[in-house]
Amino acid sequence: MGIIVNIAILIGLLVFLYFLKKKNVKFSNRVFIALAIGVVFGAVLQWIYGFGSETITKTMPWFNIIGNGYVKLLQMVAMPLVFISILAAFTKVTIGKNLGKIASIILAVLIGTTAIAASLGILSTAIFDLDASQIMQGESEVARGEEIVQKAENVKTLPEHILEMFPANPFLDMTGARSTSTIAVVIFAALLGFAYLQLQRKDEETANTVKKGVDAIYGLVMGVVRIVLQLTPYGVLAIMARTVATSNFGAIADLGKFVIASYAALIAMFIVHLIIVSLTGLNPVLYVKKVAETLLFAFSSRSSAATLPLNLQTQTKRLGVPEGIANFAGSFGLSIGQNGCAGVYPAMLAVMIAPTVGIDPFTPGFIAMLILIVAISSFGVAGVGGGATFAAIIVLSAMDLPLALAGILISVEPLIDMGRTALNVSGSMVSGIVSSRITKELDTEIYNDTSEKTSLV
After folding, report:
1. Fewer CB within 10 Å of terminal CB in the chain, N or C?
2. Per CATH, is 1-76+97-175+230-448 categorized as 1.10.3720.10?
3. For the segment 354-392, what is each residue's pLDDT rounded down to a tens digit?
């Protein structure tokens, strides 16, 4: 009976959100309302039934139809969007002139900020005096550690990992079959883009035909994106209700220091993003206001790939980044230089685990090596759930640290992963702003527009 009641209430709340849409309530306001309702609804469910109750366990699959279904629709368009976005970037005249410079700046910002994120992760671990041996490992932590060790058997060495980025079969990579599929698709699309530029110089008529085809497909894919994005409030409500209803608040309280330390590093890195924005001569407060909606979705969905459509729309419609640069920044940011998953998390984990094998993690040599490995290994980190674990395996293996302890934070992993994903997305948008600002292609009128008339859908 309780399951039926819970589902009925969810349907009622979804109808309420639809009613708000019919009343022309702004899209951003509906997203924030959905978030608040989802948190409250999830908290009430756990308060009534208790953590891990049978009723909640049986209710959540129905909630997942809305929440996970929405995320899957976004992931459905993510890979085609990455491919056509990169290819379309080459068809823009201004991009063709500054292509090398734009790509170099974006990569420099992504990798540079990842190195800074790793440094802040190390600093936070030191300030909060975190040590993996302080954490009591239960059955779930041990099981997670064993799972990570098994995964590590299939993980390549760092040189092999770099080689894995190359697309031997781009059609396979379009399915997202490999952890490095996203960067492989980016490389394949970029090669087609370079081929287009060569064709433009040799056969302008054929190149124009290709351009029309690419632009038409881009318009079609973006049409699908806009349709899916209209479902955002409903997806956010279901995702947050499920997240709160299934969260182990007891474990969160027990590992409070580790959660606080993680978020301290993530927030510090977000402040670095704001400093970078201000150094380009732009108002960082405006940046926060304009990206809040997108970061909120990244926070709730825990998927950089699913957030890509919102990421691109935010850059072009609200931040004034040209389409071509936004396409590069958003797509590169999916698998290169993820500040949260590939920067903060592996660095903190390495510093926490090192003392358990008698290594002092605060020697200059260890820190320098760790930051370097984090920066290099940030290439090819998957922009979906599990990317942080993949990055941690590579870093811990390269630093010759035990992998079994990588599962110690499994009980609070979802909570920390929410913040990491939001930071990943912010980093990619900052790289787009910096690149377009340096190349003098940023539309400052759009960036400074405070009328709040721009909608992402």
Report:
1. N
2. no
3. 888 888 888 999 999 999 888 887 776 655 555 667 777
